[in-house]
Amino acid sequence: MDTPHAAPRPSTARKPRTERGRQTRRRLIDAAAAEFGEKGFHDASISGITQRAGTALGSFYTYFTSKDEIFSALVHDLSERVRNRAADVVAPERNAVDTEREALAAFLTFAREHKEIYRIIDEAEFVDPQSYRTHYESAAARILQRLRGGAERGEIRPDIDEAHAWAIMGMNVFLGLRYSIWSDERAVEDIARVANAVLRDGLAPKD
Amino acid sequence: MDTPHAAPRPSTARKPRTERGRQTRRRLIDAAAAEFGEKGFHDASISGITQRAGTALGSFYTYFTSKDEIFSALVHDLSERVRNRAADVVAPERNAVDTEREALAAFLTFAREHKEIYRIIDEAEFVDPQSYRTHYESAAARILQRLRGGAERGEIRPDIDEAHAWAIMGMNVFLGLRYSIWSDERAVEDIARVANAVLRDGLAPKD
Description:
The structure is a homodimer of 207-residue chains. The first copy, chain A, is mostly helical and 207 residues long. Chain A has two domains: 19-65, Arc Repressor Mutant, subunit A (Orthogonal Bundle), CATH 1.10.10.60; 69-201, Tetracycline Repressor, domain 2, CATH 1.10.357. Chain A has nine helices and no strands. Chain A has helices at 19-43, 46-53, 57-63, 67-89, 96-113, 116-127, 129-152, 162-181, 188-201. Chain A starts with 18 loop residues before the first helix and ends in a 6-residue tail after the last helix. The interface between A and B is large, with 50 and 49 residues.
């Protein structure tokens, strides 16, 4: 937190209480994603965010106290959206390995739609290390929970380990970097299928 | 490259021609790892590097023209050192899956010994994007080459895909973040064994 943006209100930012307030806050967060994604934290500005959002500066300070605070809120928002995309693919009839394939495909699609996510999360390591760490720790915890559910149902090996979750998360993040951010020509389903076959069968020469 | 450090010499930095010169350049690179790792790029300084290295400022400018240039040289140096550690585990009698286990163990050990590597490589995304990209593209290319060798020898599936290499690299990077940087209590061999079992057999409930 190396930017001394003085917050006009020392109190913590308020949650919107009306639907219109929620929409304004949402617009500010979306505008922050564009502003931070394009300019990076240091060159981004609150006025740049409000201009993109089409809101008055006063609206910003209704919901956020500083550039640091909206950045942290944005990281939290992106974490939630990634979480929701993965949660959408969990279904009773889908086994654990197939669920991981669909979760990867959903993540690759989300990253293609929101290419700024990598720059924002990666910059959080420097701007807001706690949010950075929480982003990955909570994502790994969710993968671990999914895997343990699959193990309990006998769909995957019983000795599921936290390292399995971190390995899968790392696979997903780097496949996203390569196939969603740096280039997005290959079909999401194709990448998910290739990577998922490793989770299913390993690299062994079978069949 | 947003730091306007003026380079006293416009020419590109020179390679040392003597053993003593090589040692001085090595000391400067090691000092740069400590300086950038501890302070980050923006707060790091050339005088901080030369103080850590115990060299005169003039020695710095014998080998580097700017803070940007020694940062890029440092990223390149770290890439080379990671590459060499992985290359050390390749042996004729070791099959492709075991090689990946030993390469992961070597990387986890290297990251424990050089905990600054994550911050430096991650900051390269912002300070020197081309070096960041080259770091990962060349690491993935080397993994792919190892895998293709294993496939040719029939040790692993024949249809090795670039996505396999990126998946393995991502696994390794995030296992390092979790088990070498954020905490290093668990034995490297244990993590490498757990992760490698996935490459061998997948997550399927086999024995």
